[in-house]
Amino acid sequence: MNTDDTRVLLEEIDAYIERLFEPSDEVLEAALRDSRRAGLPDINVSPNQGRLMQLLVATAGARRALEIGTLGGYSAIHLARALPEDGVLISLEIDDHHADVARNNLERAGLSGIVEVRVGDAHKLLADLVEGGEGPFDVVFIDADKESYPEYLDASLRLVRPGSLILGDNTIRGGTVLDPQEETARATREFNRRVAEDPRLSGIVLPLIRERIDGLTIARVV
Ligand code: SAH
Ligand code: DHB
Ligand code: MG
Fold first, then answer.
1. Best of 42, 43, 44, 191 for a ligand 2 pocket test (most atoms within 8 Å of beta carbon)
2. Number of Cβ atoms within 10 Å of the Cβ of 200
């Protein structure tokens, strides 16, 4: 089978799984629609990946979750849906406009009481969380600027406990991590290497089919 055939087959498999498990959900559809209308880039997690993360968060029995990179709140809806009613998701976003769109989407999803969107540079906001003793978080989902993934991993490790999950989005990037030619791919490769080598973590990089082939790094704090 040639590369194009494989690509088509992978896309068909992803679409099959999406249809199988994703009866139309008006809240998620509306979140994507409003994000698009508001001019946000179309770089949210895929429906299948959102579903996977929801499962992971529920399986972890998480009560407190942290997201780095909110965009329009599409992944936040999945994460927050896996939390109990008295759970907390803090989501960090540098862009005011993205945060506004996300807050509206989360409000419509009935999740405003669980999710707090904090606006600012995640580097600063993470330092504030550490300083304010706001950890530990049971799950951290890293999905902001790729160059900063190694730093976000360091900060995350200061905000977790044994048994917590650290997830990293876009860690295959169409295969660019295999032979990095630019800073984002280099930093992502470095992030994966650290997850693999850090004795405090036990992890895996899971390849995923999206618009292009990508991956989710899943690490458990030992
Ligand atoms: N998690 C979202 C997608 C996030 S896209 C979803 O799957 O639905 C990445 C987001 O990170 C963008 O909204 C971008 O504005 C934000 N971002 C980029 N650099 C950042 C930084 N330094 N601090 C906080 N947020 C940042
Ligand atoms: C892209 C996808 C993402 O999930 C992200 O966080 C950033 C960029 C992209 O496809 O370009
Ligand atoms: Mg992403």
1. 43
2. 13
